[in-house]
Design brief:
It holds the Pfam family ZnuA. The chain is of the alpha/beta class and 335 residues long. It has two domains: 202 residues, Rossmann fold, CATH 3.40.50; 126 residues, Rossmann fold (3-Layer(aba) Sandwich). The chain has 13 helices and eleven strands. The chain has a five-stranded mixed β-sheet with strand order 3-2-4-5-6, with helices on both faces. β5 and β6 form a beta hairpin. The longest helix is centred in the middle third of the chain and has 18 residues. The relative contact order is 0.13. It binds zinc ion. Zinc ion (ZN) binds next to loops.
Length: 335
């Protein structure tokens, strides 16, 4: 099965528009940096220092980093609302140019966005890298030691799941690591970055509250999923994963499940063997559709999730809260 990011370039934020223009400019200029020196020369808005240039690999992390940086960071998200599967994305020369001049790089890590780790190492070798799967900030001295060998997607050191933005603990760890790196890069703005980190904690309250409510109200509840994307969150919620193991392995490896595995999944749903089906709407193919149809026929609630930030959603919190609200409703949890 292949993840398809269905809709591209709609509802762009101002930042995304600026970046799109920047990418267009960067092509004829070769490796010209998008964030010019002119921009870095003067403090902007509420920031007491020139903004730090930050490059984020994928949009799942982009909004969080933008919120942490505020007026003291110029954040470029390389893979924002693209019609590509982040799992096997091939970077373009324009993507490489985005890393030019980066002072801080934020990536998901593992094989998910290995291209970004490589571009950072070659194009911005002095920039520290915050890696979500590492949950720690990685200094420049560690460049070159981050090779994870020949693991498949889904077989990272950190565990079996690369979708770290669905792990609430990883979200907090990344926020802390980004804050720490920004403080180091712009010590005169340390107080500002502390304020932004506190503001993010406040912004995340609806997300944290929903997680707490579902945890409290959905003990013993079960789910199955067409893809592994949401599994870290489901674990944090205390839900039990009843996805047939054969199907789960095939899904994690982005291969087609065997007819027997698919059959096991269909029967599980027909028997109402789970409380909810988690369905990644960014997956194409007949297999997920058959599974969804089986759930609907059996009356098992279907909760839609996405791999990347859906078009028209302006923040990480909105995105996650919408999904968690739908899940709470499907599980009969009062929020
Ligand atoms: Zn995925």
């Amino acid at each position: 099965m292949k993840t398809v990011i269905v809709i591209a370039m709609l509802q762009q934020s101002g930042t995304a528009r600026a970046l799109a223009a920047c990418a267009v400019l960067a092509v004829p200029l070769g490796l010209a940096a998008c964030s010019g020196d002119a921009e870095r020369a003067a403090p902007q808005g509420a920031c007491p220092v020139p903004p730090v240039d930050v490059v984020v690999s994928v949009d799942q992390w982009g909004d969080l980093v933008s919120q942490l940086g505020g007026d003291c960071a110029h954040v470029t998200t390389v893979l924002a609302s693209s019609a590509v599967d982040p799992h096997d994305y091939e970077p373009t020369p324009a993507d490489a140019a985005e890393f030019q001049g980066a002072q801080l790089v934020v990536i998901n890590g593992g094989h998910y966005d290995e291209w970004a780790a490589k571009l950072a190492a070659s194009t911005a070798p002095d920039a520290p890298v915050v890696e979500a799967l590492g949950t720690e900030a990685h200094g420049t001295e560690e460049h070159g030691t981050e090779e994870h060998g020949d693991h498949d997607h889904g077989d990272h050191d950190h565990g079996t799941n690369p979708h770290a933005w669905y792990d609430p603990a990883a979200v907090r760890a990344v926020a802390d690591a980004v804050r720490d790196r920004l403080r180091t890069l712009a010590p005169d703005a340390a107080g500002y970055f502390d304020e932004r980190r506190s503001a993010l904690t406040t912004a995340l309250e609806p997300y944290d509250d929903l997680i707490e409510s579902i945890r409290a109200g959905a003990a013993q509840k079960t789910y199955a999923a067409t893809e592994t994307v949401f599994d870290d969150m489901a674990a944090a919620l205390g839900l039990t994963n009843r996805t047939p193991p054969g199907y789960q392995v095939a899904s994690a490896n982005e291969s087609e499940p065997s007819p027997a595995d698919l059959d096991a999944f269909i029967r599980l749903l027909g028997d109402r063997g789970v409380d909810v089906l988690i369905y990644n709407v960014q997956t194409e193919g007949s297999v997920p559709q058959q599974i969804r149809a089986a759930a609907e026929q059996a009356g098992v609630p279907v909760v839609e999730v996405t791999e990347t930030v859906p078009p028209g959603t302006d923040s990480f919190v909105t995105w996650q809260v919408d999904q968690l609200t739908a899940l709470a409703e499907a599980l009969g949890v009062r929020t």
